[in-house]
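User: My collaborator sent over this chain with a note saying "see what the structure looks like." That's all I know about it. Can you take a look?
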Amino acid sequence: MKKIRLAALTLALCTAFSACSRFVPSSYTRVSAHSQTKSEQVDTNVVNVGDYAGLRRAIRDFVRGGVEHGVIRVQQYTGTLEDDLAAAAYSVAREDPVGAYAVDYMTHECTLIVSYYEIHVDITFRKTLTPLSQIPYVSVLSELERRLHEAMDGYDEVLTIYAGYDQEPDYAALAQAYYEQNLGRLMALPQITAESYPQGGKPRIVELTMRYPETSRTLESMAQQVSDTVSAASVYVRFRESAWEKLQLLDSYLTERFTYTEKQTQTPIYSLLCEGYATSWSMAQCWALLCQEAGLECQVVRGLRGSADYWWNEVCLDGTWYHIDLMQDVMDQSGLILRYDEDMTGYYWDVEAYPACPAPEEEPNAGEENQTPDTPAEPSEPETPQEPSGETPAEPGEETPETPAEPVLQNFR
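Assistant: Without extra context I'll predict from the sequence alone. Here is the result:
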């Protein structure tokens, strides 16, 4: 009986141990699986090369692929491996556009393993503003301008391109030109900083950082307010038929909005129309915007007043051009004054770049009416014409109007 119980106990113990063995993983299987995974990870970044060109190409591919640790295997190498390895690493990291832009620093180690060399390349990448995969190749300046315009339209803070053009443009000047062509829509000119990688390289990666005084959302809100203000001005004058009447109403619309303060801002059009801060430049540009919206022919004149840079306008009424210095009129509270060339004492501009504004010649017959406003008797304080055609009868017996003793008119170069 004892023998039967002992046999049963032995059988039970054997059965239990046999069952447990099914839940204990084989250590060999586990190690083998781990080893295969590691092998696959290494193989993805292992490259075989045999010359300098292949060595440099392998390192460059590591950079393009964002590989932080790559392995290069070399057999039957043509050349001096250690010298070529140092030259290839330097060339990619400092002379190649992709490496110069993306690599902070790079280290490498070469080891002889039986019949071949194994090179380990470790790359530390710099924090770039634009991923390499999102950098477009730009071969001509017209494409550069298009991309710059799109970036400015969206108030983007960075524009990075792979530049294939030879000539290095003035990026700030390109931005200035586009900004001035869209003053009613773009509220601020970005401050542009350009960095090339590598410096002076051709080709190269160019990173343009653009700084604005406000966020894109704020600038877009400003643009909407400016658009509403300019549209309201056109409604304000829509029932006036003559150009002179429209011009007078626009003057009232603009000058009665604020008591203007002369002040430079980074959002000049918005500041003038919505805050009351003005300069000669912003006043002339806003006046041109309002005239354009009202269907009046107007130009902005750039020149000097005394020795300082200064801007004013020329406006066409019934085929005759006049100077308007609205900034001076606003500050003097003199009302809108039309000026001829002879009246612009102390102003200097390129007379060939803008329409001439000569005073009309007096007809010899005393009773004949002039077709344009009379020449102001005092050059510094000309009278405002009452009608756009300026028809004013000459005084009896008066053959010619008074003219300034010494009109000042010089070319501004």
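A starting point for your reply to your collaborator: Confidence is low (pLDDT under 50) at residues 1-43, 366-413.
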